[in-house]
Amino acid sequence: MSVVSALPFFNTLHTRAPISPGRQRRHTLPASEFRSLSPEDAISVFEIEREAFISVSGECPLHLDEVRHFLTLCPELSLGWFEEGRLVAFIIGSLWDQERLTTDALTLHKPHGSTVHIHVLAVHRTFRQQGKGSILMWRYLQYLRCLPYVRRAVLMCEDFLVPFYQKSGFKVQGPCEITVGPLTFTEMLYHVQGHALMRRNSGC
């Protein structure tokens, strides 16, 4: 299935603010919009990511050139949440072709892989503690069900984030072989299922 055929799922996610009585209708941006990201979004993505991760762990999952790299190679595996045209949260993924993550998974996109490696999920600081991260992950996992070549989603996270991802349906696979300086990670897995059902019900 092409990327274009999966886009109707995103198209159902636009909402607009109601127009008050007596106000003239005018062209406005959607109040809330979910869409794939492009290289033009890279700076906004990196600014949110840097603020979210540097203060906590001192490391960014992706540097700016890596953000541009993945948004060029596989933009269809990203998802951004925009409020009135402003990026407030995002996920970036790429394809991987092995059972477990290795260091190569940090920088490579394997076009023939069936596993989506979720590199990063981040929410703008002014929109945190509102459940947006969980909602965005749910949207993303539903979207992956529209892609017939995707069978699994994997990610690595620090231990304190394990409960967050478990609530989204991820299972602990064990310690990840990847380390970044003193940081160690837990590898987590989500089985993507229901491809045919999702295509029938979502216009995929």
Characterise the protein shown here.
The protein has 204 residues and is an alpha+beta fold. The chain has 6 helices and 7 strands; from the N terminus they run H-E-H-H-E-E-E-H-E-H-E-E-H. It has helices at residues 3-11, 42-54, 64-73, 132-144, 162-167, 195-202; strands at 33-35, 78-83, 86-96, 115-123, 152-157, 171-175, 186-191. The protein has a 7-stranded mixed β-sheet, sandwiched between helices. Helix 4 (132-144) links the parallel strand 4 (115-123) and strand 5. The radius of gyration is 17 Å and the shape is globular. 31% of the residues are buried. The model is unreliable at 1-5 and 11-21 (pLDDT under 50).
Quick structural overview:
The chain is α+β, with helices and mostly antiparallel strands and 204 residues long.
Task: Give the topology, please.
Layout: H1 3-11, E1 33-35, H2 42-54, H3 64-73, E2 78-83, E3 86-96, E4 115-123, H4 132-144, E5 152-157, H5 162-167, E6 171-175, E7 186-191, H6 195-202
Parallel strand pairs: 4-5
Antiparallel strand pairs: 1-2, 2-3, 3-4, 5-7, 6-7
